[in-house]
Amino acid sequence: MSQEARIERLLDFLQRSPTPWHAVSVMAERLEAAGFRRLDESHPWQLAAGERFYVTRNDSSIVAIQLPREGLDALRMIGAHTDSPGLRLKPNAAQTSMAGWLQLGVELYGGALLAPWFDRDLGLAGRVHLRRADGRLEGLLLHVDRPVATIPSLAIHLDREANNGRALNAQTQMAPVFLQGGEKADLTRLLLEWLDAQHDIGDAEILDFELALFDTQPPARVGVRGELIASARLDNLLSCFIGLEALLESDGAQGVVLVSNDHEEVGSASACGAQGPFLGDVLRRINAQLGDVGGAGEGKDESFIRLIQASRMISCDNAHALHPNFTDKHDAAHGPALNGGPVIKVNANQRYATNSATSALFRDLCHEAGVPVQVFATRADMGCGSTIGPITATELGVPTLDVGVPQWAMHSIRETAGAQDVEYLTRALVAFCNRAELA
Protein backbone atom coordinates (compact mmCIF):
# COMPACT_ATOMS: atom_id res chain seq x y z
CA MET A 1 0.00 0.00 0.00
CA SER A 2 1.34 3.45 -0.95
CA GLN A 3 2.99 5.38 1.85
CA GLU A 4 1.93 8.65 0.21
CA ALA A 5 -1.70 7.49 0.10
CA ARG A 6 -1.48 6.65 3.81
CA ILE A 7 -0.22 10.14 4.63
CA GLU A 8 -3.06 11.68 2.63
CA ARG A 9 -5.56 9.60 4.60
CA LEU A 10 -3.91 10.75 7.82
CA LEU A 11 -4.14 14.42 6.88
CA ASP A 12 -7.81 13.98 5.98
CA PHE A 13 -8.51 12.20 9.28
CA LEU A 14 -6.83 14.97 11.29
CA GLN A 15 -8.70 17.68 9.38
CA ARG A 16 -12.07 16.01 9.96
CA SER A 17 -11.48 15.25 13.65
CA PRO A 18 -11.43 18.48 15.68
CA THR A 19 -12.91 16.69 18.74
CA PRO A 20 -13.04 13.12 20.11
CA TRP A 21 -16.66 12.80 18.92
CA HIS A 22 -15.66 13.66 15.37
CA ALA A 23 -12.67 11.31 15.50
CA VAL A 24 -14.87 8.39 16.54
CA SER A 25 -17.40 9.26 13.84
CA VAL A 26 -14.70 9.24 11.14
CA MET A 27 -13.23 5.97 12.47
CA ALA A 28 -16.68 4.38 12.48
CA GLU A 29 -17.22 5.50 8.90
CA ARG A 30 -14.03 3.76 7.77
CA LEU A 31 -14.83 0.62 9.75
CA GLU A 32 -18.28 0.32 8.20
CA ALA A 33 -16.83 0.85 4.73
CA ALA A 34 -14.52 -2.10 5.48
CA GLY A 35 -17.40 -4.38 6.51
CA PHE A 36 -17.51 -3.89 10.28
CA ARG A 37 -21.01 -3.71 11.74
CA ARG A 38 -22.03 -1.44 14.59
CA LEU A 39 -23.34 -3.03 17.79
CA ASP A 40 -25.32 -1.32 20.53
CA GLU A 41 -24.28 -2.03 24.12
CA SER A 42 -27.91 -1.87 25.25
CA HIS A 43 -28.99 -4.67 22.87
CA PRO A 44 -28.25 -8.43 22.89
CA TRP A 45 -25.27 -9.52 20.81
CA GLN A 46 -25.05 -12.56 18.56
CA LEU A 47 -21.42 -13.15 17.60
CA ALA A 48 -19.71 -15.65 15.32
CA ALA A 49 -16.11 -16.60 14.61
CA GLY A 50 -14.43 -14.39 12.04
CA GLU A 51 -16.91 -11.56 12.52
CA ARG A 52 -15.89 -7.90 12.57
CA PHE A 53 -17.80 -5.29 14.55
CA TYR A 54 -17.38 -2.14 16.61
CA VAL A 55 -19.10 -0.42 19.52
CA THR A 56 -18.90 3.15 20.84
CA ARG A 57 -19.53 4.68 24.24
CA ASN A 58 -20.34 8.37 24.80
CA ASP A 59 -19.71 8.68 21.04
CA SER A 60 -16.12 9.61 22.00
CA SER A 61 -14.60 6.16 22.67
CA ILE A 62 -14.60 3.19 20.33
CA VAL A 63 -13.70 -0.50 20.43
CA ALA A 64 -13.33 -2.34 17.11
CA ILE A 65 -13.08 -6.15 17.14
CA GLN A 66 -11.89 -8.64 14.57
CA LEU A 67 -12.81 -12.07 15.91
CA PRO A 68 -10.47 -14.95 15.02
CA ARG A 69 -11.56 -17.41 12.39
CA GLU A 70 -10.85 -20.32 14.70
CA GLY A 71 -10.94 -20.40 18.51
CA LEU A 72 -10.90 -17.42 20.86
CA ASP A 73 -7.64 -18.16 22.66
CA ALA A 74 -5.78 -14.80 22.51
CA LEU A 75 -6.34 -11.22 21.40
CA ARG A 76 -3.89 -8.74 19.92
CA MET A 77 -4.93 -5.42 21.48
CA ILE A 78 -3.94 -1.96 20.27
CA GLY A 79 -4.79 0.97 22.51
CA ALA A 80 -4.87 4.74 21.93
CA HIS A 81 -6.87 7.77 23.04
CA THR A 82 -9.10 10.19 21.15
CA ASP A 83 -8.77 13.33 23.28
CA SER A 84 -6.19 16.13 23.19
CA PRO A 85 -5.51 19.07 25.52
CA GLY A 86 -7.17 22.32 24.59
CA LEU A 87 -9.82 24.90 25.42
CA ARG A 88 -13.43 23.87 26.07
CA LEU A 89 -16.35 26.29 26.34
CA LYS A 90 -17.96 26.72 29.75
CA PRO A 91 -21.74 26.07 29.95
CA ASN A 92 -22.56 29.78 30.20
CA ALA A 93 -19.83 30.71 27.75
CA ALA A 94 -21.04 34.06 26.39
CA GLN A 95 -19.63 37.05 28.26
CA THR A 96 -19.70 40.71 27.24
CA SER A 97 -16.52 42.67 27.92
CA MET A 98 -16.13 46.35 28.67
CA ALA A 99 -14.24 46.61 25.37
CA GLY A 100 -17.50 45.91 23.51
CA TRP A 101 -16.85 42.32 22.46
CA LEU A 102 -18.80 39.15 23.02
CA GLN A 103 -16.15 36.76 24.35
CA LEU A 104 -16.22 33.07 25.24
CA GLY A 105 -15.52 31.76 28.71
CA VAL A 106 -13.21 28.77 28.43
CA GLU A 107 -11.96 25.98 30.65
CA LEU A 108 -8.65 24.19 30.21
CA TYR A 109 -8.97 20.56 29.18
CA GLY A 110 -5.85 18.63 30.14
CA GLY A 111 -2.32 19.98 30.28
CA ALA A 112 -2.41 22.34 27.32
CA LEU A 113 0.64 24.39 26.32
CA LEU A 114 -1.04 27.80 26.44
CA ALA A 115 1.25 30.27 24.64
CA PRO A 116 0.72 28.81 21.13
CA TRP A 117 -3.04 29.44 21.39
CA PHE A 118 -2.63 33.19 20.99
CA ASP A 119 -3.20 34.81 17.59
CA ARG A 120 -4.60 31.65 16.00
CA ASP A 121 -7.62 31.41 13.70
CA LEU A 122 -9.98 29.39 15.88
CA GLY A 123 -12.96 27.31 14.82
CA LEU A 124 -15.62 25.74 17.02
CA ALA A 125 -16.60 22.08 17.19
CA GLY A 126 -18.17 19.45 19.43
CA ARG A 127 -21.59 18.04 20.06
CA VAL A 128 -24.89 19.77 20.78
CA HIS A 129 -28.01 18.24 22.28
CA LEU A 130 -31.30 19.78 21.23
CA ARG A 131 -35.06 19.31 21.31
CA ARG A 132 -36.73 19.26 17.93
CA ALA A 133 -40.13 20.78 17.26
CA ASP A 134 -41.82 17.38 17.68
CA GLY A 135 -40.29 16.92 21.14
CA ARG A 136 -37.52 14.48 20.18
CA LEU A 137 -34.15 14.87 21.90
CA GLU A 138 -31.16 14.51 19.61
CA GLY A 139 -27.40 14.89 19.77
CA LEU A 140 -25.62 16.33 16.72
CA LEU A 141 -22.03 17.06 15.81
CA LEU A 142 -21.06 20.65 15.07
CA HIS A 143 -17.94 21.53 13.06
CA VAL A 144 -17.49 25.20 12.23
CA ASP A 145 -14.29 24.87 10.22
CA ARG A 146 -13.79 28.56 9.46
CA PRO A 147 -12.20 31.09 11.84
CA VAL A 148 -14.82 32.51 14.22
CA ALA A 149 -12.66 33.49 17.20
CA THR A 150 -9.15 34.50 18.22
CA ILE A 151 -7.17 35.15 21.40
CA PRO A 152 -5.14 38.30 20.70
CA SER A 153 -1.73 38.75 22.28
CA LEU A 154 -0.93 41.90 24.21
CA ALA A 155 1.53 44.07 22.24
CA ILE A 156 5.09 44.05 23.53
CA HIS A 157 4.87 47.86 23.84
CA LEU A 158 2.32 47.31 26.64
CA ASP A 159 4.24 44.47 28.29
CA ARG A 160 8.00 44.84 27.95
CA GLU A 161 8.52 41.64 30.00
CA ALA A 162 6.48 39.46 27.65
CA ASN A 163 9.57 37.57 26.42
CA ASN A 164 10.87 36.94 29.92
CA GLY A 165 8.59 34.10 30.92
CA ARG A 166 5.34 35.86 31.81
CA ALA A 167 2.77 33.56 33.42
CA LEU A 168 -0.57 33.16 31.64
CA ASN A 169 -3.92 33.25 33.42
CA ALA A 170 -6.49 31.16 31.56
CA GLN A 171 -9.41 32.79 33.40
CA THR A 172 -8.56 36.44 32.78
CA GLN A 173 -6.23 36.50 29.74
CA MET A 174 -7.44 33.76 27.38
CA ALA A 175 -11.11 34.47 26.67
CA PRO A 176 -11.40 34.38 22.86
CA VAL A 177 -13.04 37.36 21.14
CA PHE A 178 -16.03 36.12 19.21
CA LEU A 179 -18.40 38.88 18.10
CA GLN A 180 -18.12 42.65 18.15
CA GLY A 181 -20.97 44.34 19.99
CA GLY A 182 -22.71 40.98 20.53
CA GLU A 183 -25.22 40.16 23.23
CA LYS A 184 -25.24 36.91 25.20
CA ALA A 185 -28.19 35.59 23.19
CA ASP A 186 -26.13 35.79 20.00
CA LEU A 187 -24.12 32.65 20.84
CA THR A 188 -27.23 30.46 20.95
CA ARG A 189 -28.55 32.03 17.75
CA LEU A 190 -25.29 31.40 15.93
CA LEU A 191 -25.11 27.81 17.12
CA LEU A 192 -28.63 27.20 15.84
CA GLU A 193 -27.77 28.77 12.47
CA TRP A 194 -24.65 26.61 12.10
CA LEU A 195 -26.48 23.45 13.14
CA ASP A 196 -29.30 24.19 10.71
CA ALA A 197 -26.81 24.68 7.87
CA GLN A 198 -25.10 21.36 8.66
CA HIS A 199 -28.05 19.20 9.75
CA ASP A 200 -31.26 21.01 8.65
CA ILE A 201 -32.66 21.10 12.19
CA GLY A 202 -35.47 23.57 11.48
CA ASP A 203 -37.26 24.87 14.57
CA ALA A 204 -35.23 23.34 17.41
CA GLU A 205 -34.10 24.36 20.89
CA ILE A 206 -30.57 23.87 22.22
CA LEU A 207 -30.59 22.13 25.58
CA ASP A 208 -26.85 21.69 26.17
CA PHE A 209 -23.51 21.41 24.42
CA GLU A 210 -19.90 20.27 24.75
CA LEU A 211 -17.86 22.50 22.48
CA ALA A 212 -14.15 23.10 21.97
CA LEU A 213 -12.04 25.63 20.13
CA PHE A 214 -9.54 24.37 17.56
CA ASP A 215 -6.97 25.72 15.13
CA THR A 216 -8.41 25.95 11.62
CA GLN A 217 -4.95 25.80 10.01
CA PRO A 218 -5.02 22.48 8.14
CA PRO A 219 -2.51 19.66 8.69
CA ALA A 220 0.51 19.86 6.39
CA ARG A 221 3.68 18.19 5.17
CA VAL A 222 6.64 20.30 6.29
CA GLY A 223 10.32 20.25 5.35
CA VAL A 224 12.25 20.49 2.09
CA ARG A 225 11.54 16.80 1.41
CA GLY A 226 8.25 16.65 3.29
CA GLU A 227 9.93 14.84 6.16
CA LEU A 228 7.55 16.20 8.79
CA ILE A 229 3.84 16.27 9.54
CA ALA A 230 2.52 19.33 11.39
CA SER A 231 -0.99 19.35 12.83
CA ALA A 232 -3.12 19.84 15.86
CA ARG A 233 -4.00 16.77 17.95
CA LEU A 234 -1.21 14.46 16.76
CA ASP A 235 -1.23 13.42 20.41
CA ASN A 236 -3.02 11.14 20.10
CA LEU A 237 -5.07 10.97 16.91
CA LEU A 238 -1.92 9.84 15.15
CA SER A 239 -2.01 6.61 17.17
CA CYS A 240 -5.75 6.18 16.56
CA PHE A 241 -5.14 6.45 12.82
CA ILE A 242 -2.15 4.07 12.81
CA GLY A 243 -4.01 1.50 14.90
CA LEU A 244 -6.98 1.66 12.54
CA GLU A 245 -4.73 1.31 9.49
CA ALA A 246 -3.09 -1.77 11.01
CA LEU A 247 -6.41 -3.38 11.86
CA LEU A 248 -7.76 -2.84 8.35
CA GLU A 249 -4.55 -4.13 6.71
CA SER A 250 -4.30 -7.28 8.86
CA ASP A 251 -4.99 -10.66 7.27
CA GLY A 252 -8.08 -11.33 9.39
CA ALA A 253 -6.96 -14.67 10.77
CA GLN A 254 -6.26 -13.59 14.35
CA GLY A 255 -8.33 -11.92 17.05
CA VAL A 256 -7.58 -8.18 17.05
CA VAL A 257 -8.91 -5.39 19.27
CA LEU A 258 -8.51 -1.67 18.65
CA VAL A 259 -9.59 0.51 21.59
CA SER A 260 -9.46 4.30 21.48
CA ASN A 261 -10.54 5.81 24.80
CA ASP A 262 -11.57 9.35 25.61
CA HIS A 263 -10.42 11.30 28.70
CA GLU A 264 -6.79 10.10 28.83
CA GLU A 265 -5.59 13.69 29.11
CA VAL A 266 -7.63 14.21 32.28
CA GLY A 267 -6.87 10.93 34.05
CA SER A 268 -9.05 8.33 32.25
CA ALA A 269 -11.52 8.08 35.17
CA SER A 270 -14.83 7.97 33.32
CA ALA A 271 -17.33 5.46 31.97
CA CYS A 272 -15.64 5.61 28.56
CA GLY A 273 -12.07 6.20 29.76
CA ALA A 274 -9.36 3.57 30.13
CA GLN A 275 -9.94 3.42 33.89
CA GLY A 276 -13.62 2.73 33.27
CA PRO A 277 -15.27 -0.59 32.39
CA PHE A 278 -15.78 -0.07 28.63
CA LEU A 279 -13.12 -2.39 27.23
CA GLY A 280 -13.66 -5.00 29.94
CA ASP A 281 -17.41 -5.00 29.31
CA VAL A 282 -16.90 -5.65 25.60
CA LEU A 283 -14.33 -8.40 26.14
CA ARG A 284 -16.46 -10.20 28.73
CA ARG A 285 -19.42 -10.27 26.36
CA ILE A 286 -17.22 -11.73 23.63
CA ASN A 287 -15.79 -14.33 25.96
CA ALA A 288 -19.23 -15.30 27.26
CA GLN A 289 -20.30 -16.25 23.73
CA LEU A 290 -17.12 -17.54 22.11
CA GLY A 291 -14.68 -18.30 24.92
CA ASP A 292 -13.79 -21.71 26.32
CA VAL A 293 -16.37 -21.51 29.11
CA GLY A 294 -16.45 -24.44 31.49
CA GLY A 295 -19.77 -23.60 33.10
CA ALA A 296 -21.49 -20.82 34.99
CA GLY A 297 -19.93 -18.58 37.62
CA GLU A 298 -16.35 -19.58 38.30
CA GLY A 299 -15.97 -21.27 34.90
CA LYS A 300 -16.64 -18.02 33.05
CA ASP A 301 -14.25 -16.11 35.26
CA GLU A 302 -11.51 -18.68 34.70
CA SER A 303 -12.06 -18.63 30.93
CA PHE A 304 -11.85 -14.84 30.84
CA ILE A 305 -8.64 -14.76 32.87
CA ARG A 306 -7.06 -17.34 30.56
CA LEU A 307 -8.01 -15.23 27.55
CA ILE A 308 -6.59 -12.04 29.04
CA GLN A 309 -3.33 -13.65 30.14
CA ALA A 310 -2.79 -15.16 26.69
CA SER A 311 -3.41 -11.76 25.05
CA ARG A 312 -1.10 -8.76 24.68
CA MET A 313 -1.77 -5.02 24.61
CA ILE A 314 0.32 -2.46 22.73
CA SER A 315 -0.60 0.96 24.08
CA CYS A 316 0.24 3.58 21.45
CA ASP A 317 0.77 7.16 22.58
CA ASN A 318 3.32 9.56 21.14
CA ALA A 319 6.79 9.91 22.66
CA HIS A 320 9.02 12.96 23.20
CA ALA A 321 11.49 13.26 20.33
CA LEU A 322 14.89 14.82 20.89
CA HIS A 323 14.40 18.56 20.43
CA PRO A 324 17.26 20.20 18.47
CA ASN A 325 17.09 23.37 20.59
CA PHE A 326 16.69 21.66 23.97
CA THR A 327 18.86 18.54 23.86
CA ASP A 328 19.58 18.92 27.58
CA LYS A 329 15.97 17.94 28.36
CA HIS A 330 16.72 14.33 27.36
CA ASP A 331 18.84 11.61 28.86
CA ALA A 332 21.85 11.39 26.55
CA ALA A 333 21.21 7.71 25.77
CA HIS A 334 17.43 8.00 25.32
CA GLY A 335 16.70 10.76 22.81
CA PRO A 336 14.44 9.37 20.06
CA ALA A 337 14.81 10.90 16.61
CA LEU A 338 11.98 11.84 14.26
CA ASN A 339 11.78 9.29 11.43
CA GLY A 340 13.92 6.93 13.49
CA GLY A 341 11.18 4.38 14.10
CA PRO A 342 8.65 3.69 16.88
CA VAL A 343 9.73 4.32 20.46
CA ILE A 344 9.46 1.83 23.33
CA LYS A 345 8.64 3.86 26.43
CA VAL A 346 10.17 2.64 29.70
CA ASN A 347 9.77 3.88 33.27
CA ALA A 348 10.94 2.07 36.39
CA ASN A 349 8.08 3.60 38.43
CA GLN A 350 5.43 2.09 36.13
CA ARG A 351 4.33 5.31 34.51
CA TYR A 352 4.66 3.17 31.40
CA ALA A 353 3.57 -0.48 31.40
CA THR A 354 6.52 -1.83 29.43
CA ASN A 355 8.58 -4.69 30.88
CA SER A 356 11.39 -6.69 29.34
CA ALA A 357 9.05 -9.46 28.13
CA THR A 358 6.61 -7.16 26.33
CA SER A 359 9.48 -5.04 25.01
CA ALA A 360 11.16 -8.15 23.59
CA LEU A 361 7.95 -9.03 21.74
CA PHE A 362 7.78 -5.58 20.16
CA ARG A 363 11.45 -5.62 19.18
CA ASP A 364 10.85 -8.96 17.48
CA LEU A 365 7.82 -7.58 15.65
CA CYS A 366 9.88 -4.63 14.40
CA HIS A 367 12.62 -7.02 13.26
CA GLU A 368 10.04 -9.09 11.39
CA ALA A 369 8.59 -5.97 9.73
CA GLY A 370 12.00 -4.47 8.89
CA VAL A 371 11.35 -1.46 11.11
CA PRO A 372 13.93 0.39 13.25
CA VAL A 373 13.07 0.74 16.93
CA GLN A 374 14.05 3.30 19.57
CA VAL A 375 13.68 3.59 23.34
CA PHE A 376 12.75 6.47 25.66
CA ALA A 377 13.35 6.88 29.36
CA THR A 378 13.07 10.26 31.02
CA ARG A 379 15.90 12.00 32.83
CA ALA A 380 16.22 10.86 36.44
CA ASP A 381 15.77 14.44 37.64
CA MET A 382 12.52 15.04 35.70
CA GLY A 383 8.97 13.83 36.07
CA CYS A 384 7.35 11.43 33.63
CA GLY A 385 3.96 11.49 31.98
CA SER A 386 1.80 8.41 31.54
CA THR A 387 -0.62 6.77 29.08
CA ILE A 388 -3.57 4.40 28.97
CA GLY A 389 -1.09 1.51 29.09
CA PRO A 390 -0.61 1.23 32.88
CA ILE A 391 -4.30 1.96 33.46
CA THR A 392 -5.50 -0.73 31.05
CA ALA A 393 -2.98 -3.19 32.45
CA THR A 394 -4.24 -2.45 35.97
CA GLU A 395 -7.91 -2.78 35.03
CA LEU A 396 -7.61 -5.94 32.90
CA GLY A 397 -4.33 -7.55 33.95
CA VAL A 398 -3.27 -7.92 30.32
CA PRO A 399 0.52 -7.93 29.64
CA THR A 400 1.14 -4.50 28.13
CA LEU A 401 3.83 -2.28 26.69
CA ASP A 402 3.84 1.42 25.80
CA VAL A 403 5.14 2.59 22.44
CA GLY A 404 4.67 5.66 20.29
CA VAL A 405 5.72 7.77 17.36
CA PRO A 406 8.28 10.42 18.39
CA GLN A 407 7.05 14.01 18.18
CA TRP A 408 7.91 17.60 19.07
CA ALA A 409 5.74 20.18 20.90
CA MET A 410 3.50 17.70 22.70
CA HIS A 411 0.30 19.37 23.98
CA SER A 412 0.81 22.44 21.79
CA ILE A 413 -1.96 23.66 19.49
CA ARG A 414 0.26 22.46 16.62
CA GLU A 415 2.57 19.47 16.98
CA THR A 416 5.18 17.89 14.71
CA ALA A 417 6.02 14.26 13.90
CA GLY A 418 8.04 12.40 11.26
CA ALA A 419 6.26 11.28 8.10
CA GLN A 420 8.28 8.05 7.84
CA ASP A 421 7.38 7.01 11.39
CA VAL A 422 3.72 6.67 10.40
CA GLU A 423 4.69 3.88 8.02
CA TYR A 424 7.11 2.31 10.49
CA LEU A 425 4.62 1.93 13.34
CA THR A 426 1.84 0.79 10.99
CA ARG A 427 4.03 -2.03 9.66
CA ALA A 428 5.00 -3.12 13.17
CA LEU A 429 1.34 -3.20 14.27
CA VAL A 430 0.27 -5.14 11.18
CA ALA A 431 2.89 -7.75 12.11
CA PHE A 432 1.41 -7.78 15.63
CA CYS A 433 -2.14 -8.25 14.32
CA ASN A 434 -1.01 -11.17 12.12
CA ARG A 435 1.27 -12.85 14.70
CA ALA A 436 0.04 -16.39 15.35
CA GLU A 437 1.96 -16.89 18.63
CA LEU A 438 2.28 -14.13 21.22
CA ALA A 439 4.29 -15.90 23.91
TrEMBL record:
EC nos: 3.4.11.-
One Pfam family from the record: Peptidase_M18
Name of the top EC class for this enzyme: hydrolase
Top-level taxonomic group: Bacteria
Cellular compartments per GO CC: cytoplasm
Gene Ontology MF terms in the entry: aminopeptidase activity; metallopeptidase activity; zinc ion binding
GO biological-process terms attached to the record: proteolysis
Cofactor requirement: Zn(2+)
Keywords for this protein: Aminopeptidase, Hydrolase, Metal-binding, Metalloprotease, Protease, Zinc
SUPFAM superfamilies: Aminopeptidase/glucanase lid domain, Zn-dependent exopeptidases
InterPro entries associated with the record: Peptidase_M18, Peptidase_M18_dom2
Family in the record: Belongs to the peptidase M18 family.
This protein's name: M18 family aminopeptidase
Gene that encodes it: apeB
